[in-house]
């Protein structure tokens, strides 16, 4: 999905669903993030109006929670573990391989919005080191051939 693909009707439906429930800001933002992969900045005014709060409050929440982003992300968000156990088991070379296969640096999203590459602290699956997540799925005991196969499986050509 690219930013120009934002379905404004879907966005309005999500906002309407949570309208007038001030406490529902976080579930509302989560639903938008889930639906579009980010919080479209142009939606903040509308959300603020619907929930009767200030736009700056929404900006504050988005900035505070790492799970929210104002920038569009790829269809697949890779979070490569940088924790100690993964580092010891070769996590750094796995990250290097992913960077070179995707042509992305940490924090970058490909021009086709297929992948976003991020790194993270321990994913809590050290026994499976080295690990990464793609969206909500875990991948462990990574090796270069396994990484290549996983990336190929998630590439556009395979869809
Ligand atoms: S250090 Fe990578 S999962 Fe714990």
Give a structural overview.
A four-stranded mixed beta sheet has the order 2-1-3-4, covered by helices on one side. The chain is built from seven helices and four strands. Strand 3 (132-134) and strand 4 form a beta hairpin. Helix 1 (8-18) packs antiparallel against helix 2 and helix 6 packs parallel to helix 7. With 159 residues, the chain is α+β, with helices and mostly antiparallel strands. It is 43% helix and 11% strand. It is elongated and about 50 Å long. It folds into two domains: 3-64, Arc Repressor Mutant, subunit A (Orthogonal Bundle), CATH 1.10.10; 76-158, Glutaredoxin (3-Layer(aba) Sandwich), CATH 3.40.30. The protein binds FE2/S2 (inorganic) cluster.
How is this structure best summarized?
The chain is of the alpha+beta class. 43% of the residues lie in helices and 11% in strands. It folds into 2 domains: 3-64, Orthogonal Bundle (Arc Repressor Mutant, subunit A), CATH 1.10.10; 76-158, Glutaredoxin.
Question: How would you describe this structure in keywords?
Answer:
NuoE_dom, Arc Repressor Mutant, subunit A, binds FE2/S2 (inorganic) cluster, alpha+beta, 4-stranded mixed β-sheet, Glutaredoxin, elongated, 2 domains, 159 residues, 7 helices
